[in-house]
């Protein structure tokens, strides 16, 4: 089985982009041993800073040649973040209009099994709590697209928000986005649960 992950920095996790076998040190690297033990090949196509529009720009040239049989898409937090650090917002409508045709192009009986991961954010300042209103729109889009395209849905914002009630945010994602090893482990476990794939190592 050919397994591909595409997304932003949380998927990228410092991978060596010159090495197609590099997986970084995040949730993809945690999932890979179990997937490989089951006979899968694993590719990480995450690029830090990517938004939905960036995935669209490289979808045909980078993703489709991997011919995934299981495809995970994880994007959305930068579509939120750029509104606040660069005054470059992405509306929920634009986010949907970009992602929907990409997924429609690969969905169906002959396409890969799809897994969509909900973008999450753990505010670390009082001001950032207001950012969640923007993220909520992207989260709803991802949930809706998972339903409409028959994809498994990984409710990461719920998972990480719940974890943050039990331990400090700094132990999960110090800047609210980029996970610690503990945060990456929670992401990997949430993926396994949604995908109904156990760690078979």
From TrEMBL:
<dbReference type="InterPro" id="IPR036514">
    <property type="entry name" value="SGNH_hydro_sf"/>
</dbReference>
<dbReference type="InterPro" id="IPR013830">
    <property type="entry name" value="SGNH_hydro"/>
</dbReference>
<dbReference type="GO" id="GO:0016787">
    <property type="term" value="F:hydrolase activity"/>
</dbReference>
<dbReference type="Pfam" id="PF13472">
    <property type="entry name" value="Lipase_GDSL_2"/>
</dbReference>
<keyword id="KW-0378">Hydrolase</keyword>
<feature type="domain" description="SGNH hydrolase-type esterase">
    <location>
        <begin position="5"/>
        <end position="185"/>
    </location>
</feature>
<dbReference type="InterPro" id="IPR051532">
    <property type="entry name" value="Ester_Hydrolysis_Enzymes"/>
</dbReference>
<protein>
    <submittedName>
        <fullName>SGNH/GDSL hydrolase family protein</fullName>
    </submittedName>
</protein>
